[in-house]
Amino acid sequence: MQSFFSTYLLPLSLTIIMMGMGLSLEKRDFSNIIRFPRPALTGIISQVFILPLVVFLLFGFTNLSPFVKVGFVLITACAGGSATNVITHLLKGNLALSISLTAINSLIVLITLPLIVNLALILFIGDERTVQLNVYSTIINIFLTIIIPTFVGMVIRNYFFRFAIKAQKPLRIILPLILFAVFFVMIFLKDNDSHDGIKDYLYLVPWALLLNFVSMLIVYIFSRSMSLGGRDNFTISIEVGLKNSIVGIYVAETLLNNYEMAMVSVVYGSITFFSTLLFGYLAKRIELWGYGYRNLF
User: Fold this and answer.
1) CA-closest candidate to residue 111, choices 132, 144, 136
2) 102-124 per-position pLDDT tens digit
3) All structural domains of the chain with their residue ranges
C-alpha cells in the first residue's frame, strides 16, 4: 500500500493538482512582475531568504526531532498554492500580485527547494545522514511533476479557453478532495508501526501554527518597511503563510522516504488555511486603520 501510494498515487495527485493550477494561469501572470517590481521583489525575497531564515532560527534550538525540523524547512521552501489566491480574493487584496507570486515562486523552487532542504539536512542531521536529497534528481522530479503539468495546464487554457474556464468550477471541488485524500492516507492508512498518525498530527499542530503566524508577521513587517501599498502588504503575507503542501509531502514521502518530514507538510497544509485567513483579515484591518508596523508592538 505504502509503496504504491508513494510511487504512483502521490506523484499522480501532485500532477493533477499542478495541472489544475496551470488552468488558472496565463502568460501575463508571469509578466505582471514587471508591473509590480517592488512588491514582486519583496515577495520573492520573503520566499527565498526570509522564510528559510525564520524557520532555521525558530526551530534550530528546539528539542524537536531533526527530521521534523527538516520537515518544517521543507514546507517553507515550497511555493504558495492556489489557496493563497482564494484568500487574497476573499479579502480583496492584490489578486494580480498574488497570482504572479504563486506562478513565479513555483518556478523558483525548482532550484531553491533542493538547496535549502539539503542545507537543513546538513545542519540538523549532520554528516552521517541516513536521508539524503540528490539535487539533480530532485530538480528533474520537480520539473516533471510541477513545472510541466503547470505548463500543460497553461497551454490548455491558451488554446481551449472555454474548456479551461468551465473546468475550473468542478476543479475547485475535485482538487481539494484529492489533497485531503492524501492527508487521510498519511494520517490513518500509512503502514508504519513506529508512529501513530493521529498522535503525531496533534503534536505538530501548535508548532505549525507558530511557524505560520511568526513567518507571516515578520514578512508583514518587512513589507511595511518597503513602503508598499496596504493591499500589497497583507497579500504578500498571505502568499508566504500558505504553502503548496502536496509538494512537501511528495518530496518527503517519495524522494526522501521519510514519514516525519511528510507529516509536517500534512499538518501545515491541513490547518493553516484558516489561520492565514485570520491573519490576513487582521492585517487588512491594520491597514484600514492606518497603523504603522511599529504600532504592532
Assistant:
1) 136
2) 888 888 998 999 999 999 998 99
3) 2-291
